[in-house]
Amino acid sequence: MPPVLETERLVLRPYTEADIEPAYALFEQDPLVYRFDPGFPRALEQRAAIVRRLIAGNEEDGEGALAVTLKDDGRLIGQAGLQLYVMPWQPFATPEVELYYKFGSEYWGCGYAYEAGRALIDYAFVRMRLLRLVTVTQPANHRSVRLLERLGFRLGPAPAAFKPDVVGILTNPAVGRPAS
Hints:
With about 180 residues, the chain is an alpha+beta fold.
């Protein structure tokens, strides 16, 4: 089960069944939110199936989806997490851990995605001791590209299977340092 992570303003916690309707309202009723992922609105039943799959897919090692809520009132404002991902690099595919996120548009520009991303990066590098994180976004998703740059990801062209997307890579700063 992924941990509960707290930041100054947020609580990142595993999804529950009670999150289904708020997630539907947040992610499926605003074209700005679903424009890049998946490109269309899902029905309530589809969002319910996704949330239930996210609940069931949470792993003991910390991998999984977290509901992002406001610390002061518990309101769901987005989701973020870490997931195992096979990147089709050339000439070989490699297993990677992907940082992902999605927030309701009324919460854009408030620093919440950055705050949640930093918490997950710290968790991934300090507690899980991962070597690196990857993420994929579309070049036209300017907000996502800027967020990844602020989080320190090195951006470049994605593998051919993801064109025209860009991939971000963030290496653990402890890599190459002597073990303490």
